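Illustration 12: EEF1A lysine methyltransferase 1.
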Amino acid sequence: MSDSEDDDIPQLSSHALAALQEFYAEQKQLAIPGRDGKYNAGVIEENWQLSQFWYSQDTALQLAQEAVAAAGEGGRIACVSAPSVYQKLRELHREDITAYIFEYDRRFAVYGEEFVFYDYNNPLDLPGRIPEHSFDIVVVDPPYLSEECLRKTSETVRFLTRGKILLCTGAVMEEQAAQLLGVKVCKFIPEHSRNLANEFRCYVNYDSGLDCET
Ligand SMILES: C[S@@+](CC[C@H](N)C(=O)[O-])C[C@H]1O[C@@H](n2cnc3c(N)ncnc32)[C@H](O)[C@@H]1O
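Figure caption equivalent — predicted structure in token form:
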């Protein structure tokens, strides 16, 4: 091949080549199983009959990151009536942690083995594959702001946790939450994708990143 033939081959500038490489890298990321939107928080629409009010993306992310930090390496996280936190954990591709979603809404059964049907009215009616005290942290957001709902849900939480609890619920539940679960209110204020009439708070029973000044 002569020099003049070489000169005819179109060449990309280094800038265009870098852009092309970046494009291919992005396409490769999108092709990873699980990056298909199945885990996007909000992909399953709110059903207000079931008291479903999803967190904002930012709150779901902060709670998921807090759960990972609290659970530790290879930790086990139970998301009880808090599907957005489970979805965010999976969206983050934290394959090093184990996460389960305990939910009444069977639409979340799309998550397979990690879905556990759960009704707070039967707090200890859980499958045999879920042993007592088998989660490093339980993240929980009970569906109703009532003493009965919090009391029954607390039974489940105490059964599941090895110690750590991260509760999100109304500010009005502070005293009952302290009595039932020994949790204290955090400085971090959870937000929802829609504005809610009730003030919400996070409560923990351990030294948590959510307690820092924001
Ligand atoms: C206040 S929402 C909390 C959702 C949270 N903010 C999130 O974004 O993940 C309450 C959750 O409780 C679930 N729920 C409704 N009825 C329930 C029941 N009987 N037992 C357990 N959970 C129930 C709803 O499906 C919903 O996911």
